[in-house]
Design a protein that fits this description.
heterodimer; A: alpha/beta; Rossmann fold; 2 domains; 7-stranded mixed sheet; 5-stranded mixed sheet; 16 strands; 21% strand; globular; B: Pyruvate-ferredoxin Oxidoreductase, domain 3; 6-stranded mixed sheet; 6 strands; 38% helix
Amino acid sequence: MRKMVKVKEHGLKILQGNEACVEGAVAAGCQFFAGYPITPASEIAEYMAHKLPTCHQGTFVQMEDELASISAITAARWGGNKSMTATSGPGFSLMQEGLGYALVTETPTVIVNVQRGGPATGQPTVSSNQDIYQARYGSHGDYELIVLAPASVQEMFDFTVKAFNLSEEFRVPVIVLADEIIGHMREKILIPEEVELLEVESPKHCKEPYRADDRLIPPSVEFFQGHNLIIDGQLHDEKGNRAGHDLEISEKLVERLNHKITQNIDAITDIETYETEEASIILVSYSSVSRSALSAVKKARAKGVAAGWIKVNSVWPFPEKALKELTASAKTVMVPEMNIGKYYREVRGILPDQKVVSVPLVGGKLHKPDDLLALILKEAKACTN
Amino acid sequence: MRSEIRIVGSGGQGIILSGILLTHSIGLYEGLEVAQTQSYGPESRGGACRAEVVVSDERVDYVKVEVPDYLITLNEVSFNKFIKDTRKETIVLVDSTFVDADPSIHPNLYSIPATKMAEEQLKGYVANMVALGAFSKINDIVTLDSMVKAVKGIVHPDFHSINIEALYLGNERMMS
């Protein structure tokens, strides 16, 4: 059931992206935050520590590290509280084991990764998209999860609310994959008077907490409601009993964990476009780079080039079908990103008959519109020759 | 319409606060779209510090400054570094307490001894506000009135009067 819920501190404001994320979380009903501060995500913990206990009767815990943080938010959700943590690349690496646990136990929770440059301690104060694969493949085993990439302060609010709803709907951890630019930027934001929240009804006295419905999603259950619950990291049967030794049951569970996301991809996919119809050159972008890309495409249009722009908000699961359809008219597809060229590989993989160009930038530089424009004009010239 | 403002100086001079104040003034009281970014590393606590504000009448796409329409510099190191990234139409404002700029170096150079005025006339660390007051006279985006409203919105009430006085001081000095 979807329900409109009032937002306490609504209105037009100027906020930092990290602050907007906190506003989104509390608007979505987050009652528990466990985290360990790290640049450039620390403002989320700082602001949560201030807001959650004082304004929303929630709990903020500064944990000893990121391993503990992700474990705490997983447990908190089973205890009945919507929960969240926030970190950056190095901390996100430490969370991967716990993320796997949240995935196999089908725990709805939200992890914010405000990306900085890596590898390792890397570049604490500058932006990147280098965790695009870590967000998808960081934990071991076969799984699917949902990753949203905001590109503005408004989207830090909107996507955080959406992350909570998607996590509840699909019983999966959802990652908000922000970056330093978005996290620290200040912009105008309109916090709505009400947000739409998903409240999934719980069954009565559930004995099979992992028995899925026809969308492959198990029931919404938590402790202290009279259900028979076993929460365990090992593969299990529908009751939660360990069944890693049973190859049939294990096969069924691993397939369902993946298919509950891939089979519902149309309900998850979120893509914005500008002038893609009949465009011969299309830029596929995400996160803060998408704004440079849009600027470049508008400049190219002003010069008479049939350029188009795609911004992928739901970067994972990879929206293969939607991207194929939206880029159908393009002879050339360009993928600018603040990493060595990772999402490019995904795009190239689904468009074997089109020219797909990687436009990587590493070291913390954000693509300049004029540099992208020069590449678009070069491609346009190549197309006409 | 797109307009870009860059404010530079040493960490501790209130560069970031100036950027935040302009963002609130322009976004909330001038009704324009605005995106503010800043240097974030140790330089924001000393060394060369930078705040950037991009203004537009539609949603800001590229969030960083390409070539500034306005450059405000509060120390010499940052002046020498960032004057190179201007065009002749760029309006440049310098704090002449620290920047000994030859007026012939740039056709749109304005100067005000912001730090000296703040220390001597207001006995406070409000040189950034003196400079913003002066800036209100030489730009067509944001008014002094909007800046005063923004001070009331984001500065602790104990420091409203000195900051507002500093804005007026800079504004009046630039007028004369």
